[in-house]
Amino acid sequence: MKPALLALCLLHPLLAGCAVGPDYITPDFGTPARWSSETNRPAQALKLAQWWRNLGDPLLDQLIGEAVAGNLDVAAAKARIREARATQRQAVGALFPSVSGSGAATETRSSGSSTSGIAIAPATYSQYQAGFDASWELDLFGANRRALEAASYGVDAAEDDLRATLLTLIGDVGSNYIDARAYQARAALARRTAASQRETAALTERKQAAGSASAVDTAKASALAASTEATIPTYEASYQQAVHRLGVLLGRDPTALSQLLSRSTPIPAPRLPLPKGIPADVLVMRPDVRKAERQLAQSTAKIGQATAALYPDVSLSGTVSTTALKLGDLGKNSTIGWSIGPSVSVPIFNGGKLQAAVEIAEAQRDEYHVAWRSAVLSALEDVENAIVNLAQERLRIRSLGESARRYGEAARLSRALYQTGSSTFLDVLDAERSQFTAEDSLLASRATLAKDYVALAKALGGGWGGVLDSSKPEIVDAGTGPHLVQAVEPR
Length: 491
Prior knowledge:
Low-confidence stretches: 4-16
Strand content: 5-15%
Distance between the termini: 61 Å
């Protein structure tokens, strides 16, 4: 530090606001001008407010609202905000003087003695004392101000952590709800298909009895129906797992939603397209990126806090006390004494420990800088992947829709021709198997499309935009004043 600046800090600690260490500057990250899918089109403004309503499912909207209110990860994130705010208030307190009071009352009895043959009787007297002690660290080189700066960035990071938790939560609720509806639909399809295949097996048995079909055809027909029925337990298990996960995400019992979701409804279909904005929006919209940037700022402030320990520490301290033999004399001018003065602590030799602390803080700052860059790149990657997946799934679902329609026609024609004897059973078997596979794949693709939409909204930073109250504690203690401690019985 230059001598003139050092003198300024010493002479005007409060007005100058001197501090050592680097001042934080928001880093720049060169993002592309537009997403790869919109090279030849103007970018649309980002619109993510309550994006899940575009799925057109009121029950999903209800579940997301309940999840925001009851999820345990959200509750933990709110507690971290309260912790960060308390840490900030603690750092603020270090900027002010500390004052403490004391008082004492003593009863003294002196022992008797004898001098030159004269006996002195024991004496008893009382002494009363009261006073105040005050101290103030002047913080000439900004250690406490840097600590407050770091704590303030910590509050920002905790709030962004809550937003990131909500973003993940809403996406998880949406994805698991889509899975639940998809497995319901696929299980229902398997039941309908198996019932149709059982009818075909019964027809084959009648034709075998009439001598126009073989026992092999009958066995294959029954085997196909059984094979289709075997998929039902798998779908039911996956459905139950999705329902259980939804219950936990809402902060409730895993089976709490079983009755509510028991009635099958269509797989949510998103309204497309979803405006994606520009890549630079990710730096502002993604709470995990904002959190990483705030943590970088916090680590930068901690370098200044560690650097300040290399400089002298100046404090002012003072005491005011009053001592009297009678309680009523306390506070009289003749009983009052005081002292005031500065104290200086200068680090002379510490074996390099303080400098090592600075280097540790600098290395941690580098770690957070890399973590922020990684968060930005991951966010951009998430968006690009989600855009590609959504676009390709839309193409795939068109082909699967055509496939399911054609296979459905083929199955109906094959059964009709088989009944009249104009087609072999192998044609029927192949057509029914292909129809089920195509329709099942179409349902799975619809679910994938909806989940790709959810993934894109998450990647763009679409989370909960409503007001959140993080001030209410989970546990409210009672009777925390002085009281007798109850004995704890050993287990």
